[in-house]
Amino acid sequence: MKNIKFLIIGVLFGIILSKTEVVSWYRIYEMFKFQSFHMYGVIGSAVVIGIVIMQLFKKEVIKDYLGNKVVVKDKEKGFVKTLVGGTIFGLGWALSGACPGPMYVLAGHGAIAILVVLFGAVIGAFFYGLLSKKLPN
Prior knowledge:
Layout: H1 4-19, H2 25-32, H3 38-58, H4 79-96, H5 100-109, H6 114-131
Helix pairs in contact: 1-5, 5-6
């Protein structure tokens, strides 16, 4: 019961994704064909909000849910790693029509086909967990 707040936040996040049409395959298709600004606006807003929140974490204005300082480690810069990872992520997004977060929202909407994508994501995460110590990350 103590983690109910996280469930509530997740449900609210799912409702927001649904209402803003971020889970719509047609909106994603429009984005990849450069026909609409909708998704770019949503993603751009998320990036700006993420930058602001990270700066607040670094300045210790925001703490974790237990009141502890959040330590933000600077990662090494890896252009090739970022390019390869981003390409794989983008191809998966384009082919499936779904980013990882909205997959659960689509399943909740009754999009049965997304269960195949969700299964593939779980299998991919499983294999990443097995191989992560051997990968250059």
